[in-house]
Amino acid sequence: MTNIAIETKNIHKSFGDKKILTGIDLKIKEGESHVLIGGSGSGKSVLIKVITGLLTASRGEICFFGTPIKYKKNKTNYDKLGMLFQSSALFDSLPVWHNIAFGLIQAKTIQKKDALELAIEKLKMVGLDPDVAFKSPSELSGGMQKRVGLARAIASNPKILFFDEPTTGLDPIMANVINDLIVKCSKEVGATTFSITHDINSMRIIADKVSMLYQGKIIWQGDKSKLDTSSNKYLKQFIAGDLKGPITF
Amino acid sequence: MIFLQHIGRTTLVFLRDTDKLFLFTVRSVIHIFTPPFYLRTLGQHMLNIGYFSLPVIGLTAIFTGMVLALQSYTGFSRFSAESAIATVVVLSITRELGPVLAGLMVAGRIGASMAAEIGTMRVTEQIDALKTLSTNPLQYLVSPRILAGILMLPCLVLIADIIGVFGGFIVSVYKLGFNAGSYLSLTWDYLEAFDVISGLIKAAIFGFIICLMGCYHGYYSTGGAQGVGKATTNAVVSASILILIANYISTGLMFGAS
Lengths: 249, 258
Fold this sequence. Notes:
The complex is a heterodimer.
Chain A: E1 4-15, E2 18-29, E3 33-37, H1 44-52, E4 59-64, E5 67-68, E6 81-84, H2 96-106, H3 112-125, H4 142-154, E7 160-164, H5 172-189, E8 192-197, H6 200-206, E9 209-214, E10 217-223, H7 233-240
Parallel strand pairs in A: 3-8, 3-9, 6-7, 7-8
Antiparallel strand pairs in A: 1-2, 1-4, 4-5, 9-10
Helix pairs in contact in A: 2-3, 2-4, 3-4, 4-5, 5-6
Chain B: H1 2-33, H2 39-49, H3 54-76, H4 85-123, H5 126-132, H6 137-174, H7 180-189, H8 193-219, H9 224-255
Helix pairs in contact in B: 1-6, 2-6, 3-4, 3-6, 4-6, 4-7, 4-8, 4-9, 6-8, 8-9
């Protein structure tokens, strides 16, 4: 029997009177690559932040591998998770190698002298030269920053990887490079992945299963292979990018 | 009715913000005393707050001491009390002007830079990234800065005191024609240890205020570049106002009865 890696039960999230998420139920199997799609303002970023513990749910429960997660102030839900942020979120004041090994150095699971070696190994995994290790994040292009962000996310061999709009702001070729790296690296570390994106091409490359979020609710869920045959009007419109349809802006 | 609603809303916002600042302060202070301790980061902030603020503090102090001697001479010469200039300069500088002016200058330099740095980290998701890397951002970013401020402001103020008194000495001896030996003797004769210590205590309080305000406004900044700019302004303004209020309260507590 396959384990459930991530489970959300009736997640609600509001900011003041504004309801963002209204009863999200998700089950993501271990080893699965699950992609959540949805338009701007549909609540995707809020959901990923709630699951990772960066935001607290107003109501509901989150379980990782069957264990309900207790919220800790100023820490994420699960020590064995990695996350690639939309803006890469590299620490400007630290060189690339320190960015990659930061979590391990803080957790004291690695000595500083071994950290450089590990960082270079992870840089190679994401297709970057070892020289990059000594550069500052500000010296890197957007695509290189994303790859360093990915190297940092996989540095601790996490059991769960989160990707927040991984291809935003990249040219189509670099976006495909990142998509391929996400697939390759996730397999290499054996992680379950949960990604949010509105990039349909990216979703087709990295997803095993897809959910669509609209106005704070999951309105469609299924295998990637069923995307194009689905009769769901919202999904059809979103994938086709049609202006006409039930989704209004 | 609308007026009452406005008052109610403002009160609620004030209470919520006060609560947020209180919790932020308590948590940050607790993390100063709980491991892990980021000593390297602490050292970097001490260097930034202390060493790199020296030029601005030195210039402020020397000109303040010089102006104070000139102005005191103008006033005291009207009733033949020129001999009190040395005492007035040293007491004014050590008790009030040294700590307050150093505090305000550091608030402008350090408070703004802390708010901008942490605010940028907030809007570029670096603070979220810290959390996903099992690092408490308050402990890593805020507590070392606050501790560095508490430790370095007294050092800066001590240096400012010396430079300020020296400024007064230069003007008094080379411009106003005082005898160097008697000026220094008057400076030392009426100076008590507590005059200097009280200024250093105030400096530690101001260091805490400056770094707390810089970190707080940066940590809760929202809305991209504009939000960071607003946080920077708020950090400097609130630190400056709080320094003046804290100065009055601490002066009242330390000298109110004497």
